[in-house]
Amino acid sequence: MDKLENIGRLARSSSRILEKASSENKNKALVAAASLLEEKNAIILNANQLDIESAKNMGIQGAMLERLELSDYKIQLMADGLRSLSKLDDPIGKISWLKTQPNGLKIGQKRVPLGVIGMIYESRPNVTVDVFGLCLKTSNSVILRGGKEAIESNKAIVSILKEALKNSDLPSDVLQLIEDTSRESAFALMRLNKYLDVLIPRGGNALIQSVIENSTVPVIETGVGNCHIYVDENADQEMAISILINAKTQRPGVCNAAESLLIHESIAHEFLPKVGKKLNEHKVEIRGDTLVCQILPFAKKAKDEDWGQEYLDLIISVKIVRSIDDAILHINQYGTRHSEAIITNDNDHAQKFLEEIDAAAVYVNASTRFTDGYEFGFGAEMGISTQKLHARGPMGLKELTTIKYIIYGKGQIRL
Amino acid sequence: MDKLENIGRLARSSSRILEKASSENKNKALVAAASLLEEKNAIILNANQLDIESAKNMGIQGAMLERLELSDYKIQLMADGLRSLSKLDDPIGKISWLKTQPNGLKIGQKRVPLGVIGMIYESRPNVTVDVFGLCLKTSNSVILRGGKEAIESNKAIVSILKEALKNSDLPSDVLQLIEDTSRESAFALMRLNKYLDVLIPRGGNALIQSVIENSTVPVIETGVGNCHIYVDENADQEMAISILINAKTQRPGVCNAAESLLIHESIAHEFLPKVGKKLNEHKVEIRGDTLVCQILPFAKKAKDEDWGQEYLDLIISVKIVRSIDDAILHINQYGTRHSEAIITNDNDHAQKFLEEIDAAAVYVNASTRFTDGYEFGFGAEMGISTQKLHARGPMGLKELTTIKYIIYGKGQIRL
Question: Are residues A36 and A159 in the same domain?
Fold first, then answer.
């Protein structure tokens, strides 16, 4: 992969230049890129049409085709995203602390870019623009490896973004697209340790697992969410139904949607028929344990593997638990450490749940759908980390940076 | 590896209990462990003697044998280390921020343990105690996989530490030692994603590279340091010599020791004979470029691979550069992103070096030997990270933790 080696080298060397760019310069480039995307939207839509046709020929349809398809409106949203990024605070260069040691050494901690970020992702071409914007804002070079189904759209978008970089006197090499969409190119990227500081996969579980298995570059694991709603014995049941229906049905295909409902046994006979009726109205298939199936005749019997499933569809697993401890044990065993919620009016139970659940975001009396960089007030989002190293939960700008220690001496030596 | 699966399960389940332990309880356990190590030092020394004998039979000698060998004094140092940890601030449970969103959701960020930390390391049995203390203080379970040359010492130490945990009403399962020291056990640990949150290798370059190559568990890369001292054209030359001799010779076997000297060409003819004489006095072998060999007749000719070497020995590579830009380019190409120093009286050059060098710690007019958790005032150290994700530079207590978002609602759903 000589070509990839070259892409890596260009990304690395241009990242040294980008690191020195002023916030003003970067923000101007973001706004320029937004305008150029709008101006040249016909080019993007034409390229996207080629992808759509190939996709249809390959038999792709439904949600996947929708994710791939662009429109004037979607291009407008991408451009707006870049403009809002330009208004956010730039984390790069900030000195978090500077202290003088007893020996007179002044030691400071400074925020710096990660350097070169790799991204492997599927279908949605808007990710190309989002990731470009987040990386430019944080002075990182980025190497993109999108899916083959979106290659024409990605090529058109990247070419426009590179033009905007040039027009703004920034090196266009900070944005690299791998046009080879073979499996081999993805595997080669996973081993490009010499030039990559981090690799972020965004997509389905299979893609993410493959990156974890094969990458020697440090990875930030994102996205898989088997999120639970636990309805405690003294929950406000109307609130519980409203939250569950929102978490399950508002956008069933996203990672912070609920996939499993746990109910305290003392309220099962009262609560299940009510929530079952509502789920039915929303065409949600219920896969329940034995007791659930006894109470709800229309429920299907859950298999063992249902408890670990991220359906991303109008399906939910439902289980009766004997206590909050049982609920916590079940969630810590089957959850993916993404987002988990308890519905309760008992403060001690709320506190216990918050403390003992091992997940990026733990909720009391709210929908898991709020796990999102914008909803959390970060102004941007690179994905949702489900690992514990470096970043956990929604990743904003700060998560795309690292620190460096700077030390000022007057000839100090170690004794 | 059914046994390892069991070790993982025990470490994970006990970590849930440890997470709820009070700071007071953990600190008492640290002090109790310190006393028990002192009380039972004969048991440790006897076990260590077995390791020493096997090591001698295997032909191990010199620095490696020294690292393996324990003494009353070394056990005292380990115990003192645990006592000082007990006096440090506990990061766990701190709420860094809590804010109310426009929709009334209260979102907070809380500091929590990583969970289960894996550690693969070589020879030095004091690492066993240090890592136990750091993990206990931060409420993490730890799975240790030490080298086979130290196995008897490690077993004796771990058994005493587990006794101290029990005496302090903490689960002794939070400390796990893998007694199987085969290569297979190390590889199995590298793939124990189900139970491990992070894996930290400590040891030589070969060990660290093997972990990076083979681990699917997130890794924090530590330790390899090809550190440079760049002597600028207007440096205080006496200071430069003092810093270089300290960085090269005070402890040549450690990762923050200097391995390479870069000199601005305008001072080469004046400075090189002076520094060469001093290096000679300290029995440091010089491997120089062509010009260096012309000026210093006793210097050996450096090969290409010398520029990337971490000698960990009384050897130094020396190169003449034409400018500070050349020096920065060379360091960013051959350095390992550990610690780099410039010696200069020119503020602009100092600033340029601090900004453009890509390393965990960048020094102006001080020895690279200061890159250390204690010297930086962190009160503890888990190793020195040379990667950019999660932790960079000396890792203290905070680097052994992560965050969790806690969200309080009143029935909010996403619109």
Answer: yes
